[in-house]
Amino acid sequence: MDPSTSSDITLDINGEKHALLVDHRTTLLDALRERLDLTGTKKGCDQGQCGACTVLIDGQRAVSCLQLAVAAEGRHITTIEGMAEGGQLHPVQQAFLDLDGYQCGYCTPGQICSAVAMLDEHAAGWPSAVTGDVRTEAAPPELTPEEIRERMSGNLCRCGAYVQIVEAVTRAAAERTGTRPDGIAEKPADPATEVSA
Amino acid sequence: MTTATTGTTPPAEGAHGSPHTRVEGPEKVTGTARYAGDVPFAELAYGWLALSTVARGRVRPVDTASVLAMPGVLAVLHHGNAPHVNTDYAGMLGPPDPTIAVFQNDRVPHRGWPVALVVAETSEQAREAAEALVVEYEEEPHDVAFDAGRPDAYAPGGPEKPDVAEKGDLAAQLASSAAVVDEEYTTPEEHHSPMEPHAATARWEGGRLELVDSNQGSAWIVNELAKLFSLDPSSVRVRSEHVGGAFGSKGVRAHQVAAVMAATVLQRPVRVVLTRRQMFTLTGYRSPTAQRVRLGADADGRLRALEHDSLSLTSTVHEFVEPSAGVARVMYDATAHRTANRLVRLDVPTPTFMRAPGEAPGSFALESALDELAEQCGLDPIELRARNEPETGPVSGLPFSTRNVLACFREGADRFGWAERDPRPGIRREGHLLIGTGTAAASFPSRAIPSTAAVTAEQDGGFTVRITAADVGTGARTALALVAADALGVPTDQVRVRIGDSDFGQAMIAGGSMGTRSWAWAVTAAARDLREQLALGGSVPPEGITVRSDTAAAIGALTETERHAYGAQFAEVAVDTATGEVRVRRMLGIFAAGRIVNPLTARGQLVGGMIWGISMALHEEAARDDASGATVGADFAGYHVAANADVPHVEADWVTDVDPDDPVGIKGIGEIGIVGAAAAIANAVWHATGVRHRHLPIRPDRILRAEEDRAGARRG
């Protein structure tokens, strides 16, 4: 590749370093998908409107289609492939699975990454457009369905799984603040009975 | 938490009827499920389509020299050099839409039509080269203006078989009616917009053409590609393991044809993925409609006259009808009954099937008109529908297999709190919000298409089902595992279902709410035969014991009947008279849709359909610019589909409704959820504001203008 239009970079993804030569035009999304075979991050619109390509950059959610790969050097990137730890699904992943928070599954990696970061944003006291009291000294707002809908609206789901997505995020949020402070959900023995209960 | 269970469905025996999470769910939540554009290939080349910038005309000879000299560019295909394809055939849906036969001549039939494919080593190189390619046109005047008064509208099907059904003397019955509704309703151009853009990778492997694709039926795609490229169908293999939504848009499209051409010319794998913007002109859409409904009734609401006339558009090169008038042929009878679908041909892309084609826009018009008639007669809208329940098919005269629409209304009214509703419009105010509720009926045909399946008893005690089904998000893979387990009498985890590979044989596509019904029939037939064979005893050889089924004879032997799914939709809205914003506060849909195989995923599909109804009622509208012939704002900013914050708690449930003629009792649930949903919301907006909104979507400016008109009338 022409050195005037390409660069050697190292990307830190899911705790692993990846050295690669990239065309300067390459987005972070395309670098993940086409160069590193991390295809869990999806391309839905390639222009920052759908959220399917959401990843975490230094812990905050970002649409990877609007980031150039060269600009992501030195940042900690977490993709859907890095959400499960030690073979154990992240509580948000488990809740999407158990409560059917998806249909075709294409927006799902972005929804899950977005939800994980959103729960952190909420815990840090960030308000949303529907938060009543936005003073900095106010307590974090209760994570109502209305708050979740607003905070998850950057991730489109054309199948219309929003109701189940809100249910899944609600459960994951409750687990985070509830009985298991380590944030790891107990895997239900039978997801089917969990749902019909 | 709301559950997927229901109080009205009796507990089912065996595996199906119990909620089950998706068998491919762990892959989908961890990002390891590979969709068409995710499958890696060595030596992969990237194709990028260049689209026409005029709506009608001819492409001048394309000068490719400067683009071929750009870094990484491998080929530029256009009408001057592309391989020939054959379009003189009839496939599953009839003759192919000529707009998929790219680069065959210099004619441009619509704006945004492929005029070239640039192939390069990387997608960045291909994209830049495609944008650099200069294509010149001999532009001709175009016409893309759709409206109800088009003098060139015609009845499709030709003079022998026009799409018109009529009986009785309409004028006479209208003249003798105590109550008459005569209104025009319109719906705009709507786009499927699945989250996964269309993607296909083509390659030649061992003398066979292989396509890794995202489609609604891999056997269907094989048949079409084989005919287009004059190949033996056995020398084409199409795989489509995971599909990121389809909704009618994922059949044979220009990008697959272009990918096959490029792979053939270059003899290496070529992937063509559409951009979101390209999807607006290359993957079909729902035609706008202009519908006139005339209802005449006695004072007690019994219909004497019903006319539903719908105009839709198609391209200049292919006839596709959005059959919106068809819903009246199922739902309501009248002494005089006339339904007609008409078309106008314009310089636009060919529209296609989109979730509940016909029923979705048709039910908006018809169910809105019923609500207007109920108002005129001073009747409850549900009572009006009860008084007009037909004994037999209004047009066919055939008996109904099961028709449980009133059971849906009863259950829904009870759970929604309909009995407490004050019918008067425009009287419930919360600050600057006006509150209202509305209801509408739903119906969608239940059909089955012959399919083949294979079920194998493996030596390790497990079972493998092979069928060319497609799971476009419906949960088909999981449903078929439950169905097979039930027929085999084994636990679900002993059954492995393999789908999305044309080598598994002919099968119905995921479409028309027919997929799961058609596939489950074939899987059940093979599994039952296998179970009988195994019951005879003996050991399973290393290659297993495989039984194949073909449902052609069984489906051919079905007696003709009116077989449909039904539903009752309920909505509550709040209309902000200051901003014009309509928000749906809650929705409930009760359906009679045959046997529900997996309540967990069925609920998702039905609720998803209802959310499409919210989106259709309030948001979706593709605007076409008359001057350029292009869609304005062809992206998710210009074309808004319902986002999470647009959607309240939506509930779906069902009543017992088992089809007696189907071995599994399935009717199909892919489309019934959207039918009637927009009408229920529009009727709720009337109940809130006292103003009828007959044009979708019900945008803030339409609400505000209606409020201004009303204020002006009061002052007047």
UniProtKB/TrEMBL annotation, chain A:
<dbReference type="GO" id="GO:0051537">
    <property type="term" value="F:2 iron, 2 sulfur cluster binding"/>
</dbReference>
<dbReference type="InterPro" id="IPR052914">
    <property type="entry name" value="Aldehyde_Oxdr_Iron-Sulfur"/>
</dbReference>
<comment type="pathway">
    <text>Alkaloid degradation; nicotine degradation.</text>
</comment>
<keyword id="KW-0479">Metal-binding</keyword>
<dbReference type="Pfam" id="PF00111">
    <property type="entry name" value="Fer2"/>
</dbReference>
<keyword id="KW-0560">Oxidoreductase</keyword>
<dbReference type="InterPro" id="IPR002888">
    <property type="entry name" value="2Fe-2S-bd"/>
</dbReference>
<dbReference type="InterPro" id="IPR006058">
    <property type="entry name" value="2Fe2S_fd_BS"/>
</dbReference>
<dbReference type="Pfam" id="PF01799">
    <property type="entry name" value="Fer2_2"/>
</dbReference>
<dbReference type="InterPro" id="IPR036884">
    <property type="entry name" value="2Fe-2S-bd_dom_sf"/>
</dbReference>
<feature type="compositionally biased region" description="Basic and acidic residues">
    <location>
        <begin position="174"/>
        <end position="189"/>
    </location>
</feature>
<protein>
    <submittedName>
        <fullName>(2Fe-2S)-binding protein</fullName>
    </submittedName>
</protein>
<dbReference type="GO" id="GO:0046872">
    <property type="term" value="F:metal ion binding"/>
</dbReference>
<dbReference type="InterPro" id="IPR012675">
    <property type="entry name" value="Beta-grasp_dom_sf"/>
</dbReference>
<keyword id="KW-0408">Iron</keyword>
<dbReference type="InterPro" id="IPR001041">
    <property type="entry name" value="2Fe-2S_ferredoxin-type"/>
</dbReference>
<feature type="domain" description="2Fe-2S ferredoxin-type">
    <location>
        <begin position="7"/>
        <end position="83"/>
    </location>
</feature>
<dbReference type="GO" id="GO:0016903">
    <property type="term" value="F:oxidoreductase activity, acting on the aldehyde or oxo group of donors"/>
</dbReference>
<dbReference type="InterPro" id="IPR036010">
    <property type="entry name" value="2Fe-2S_ferredoxin-like_sf"/>
</dbReference>
<keyword id="KW-0411">Iron-sulfur</keyword>
<keyword id="KW-0001">2Fe-2S</keyword>
<feature type="region of interest" description="Disordered">
    <location>
        <begin position="174"/>
        <end position="197"/>
    </location>
</feature>
UniProtKB/TrEMBL annotation, chain B:
<dbReference type="GO" id="GO:0016491">
    <property type="term" value="F:oxidoreductase activity"/>
</dbReference>
<dbReference type="Pfam" id="PF01315">
    <property type="entry name" value="Ald_Xan_dh_C"/>
</dbReference>
<dbReference type="InterPro" id="IPR036856">
    <property type="entry name" value="Ald_Oxase/Xan_DH_a/b_sf"/>
</dbReference>
<keyword id="KW-0560">Oxidoreductase</keyword>
<keyword id="KW-0500">Molybdenum</keyword>
<dbReference type="GO" id="GO:0005506">
    <property type="term" value="F:iron ion binding"/>
</dbReference>
<dbReference type="InterPro" id="IPR008274">
    <property type="entry name" value="AldOxase/xan_DH_MoCoBD1"/>
</dbReference>
<dbReference type="InterPro" id="IPR037165">
    <property type="entry name" value="AldOxase/xan_DH_Mopterin-bd_sf"/>
</dbReference>
<protein>
    <submittedName>
        <fullName>Oxidoreductase</fullName>
    </submittedName>
</protein>
<feature type="compositionally biased region" description="Low complexity">
    <location>
        <begin position="1"/>
        <end position="15"/>
    </location>
</feature>
<dbReference type="Pfam" id="PF20256">
    <property type="entry name" value="MoCoBD_2"/>
</dbReference>
<dbReference type="Pfam" id="PF02738">
    <property type="entry name" value="MoCoBD_1"/>
</dbReference>
<feature type="region of interest" description="Disordered">
    <location>
        <begin position="1"/>
        <end position="26"/>
    </location>
</feature>
<dbReference type="InterPro" id="IPR000674">
    <property type="entry name" value="Ald_Oxase/Xan_DH_a/b"/>
</dbReference>
<dbReference type="InterPro" id="IPR046867">
    <property type="entry name" value="AldOxase/xan_DH_MoCoBD2"/>
</dbReference>
<dbReference type="InterPro" id="IPR016208">
    <property type="entry name" value="Ald_Oxase/xanthine_DH-like"/>
</dbReference>
<feature type="domain" description="Aldehyde oxidase/xanthine dehydrogenase a/b hammerhead">
    <location>
        <begin position="30"/>
        <end position="141"/>
    </location>
</feature>
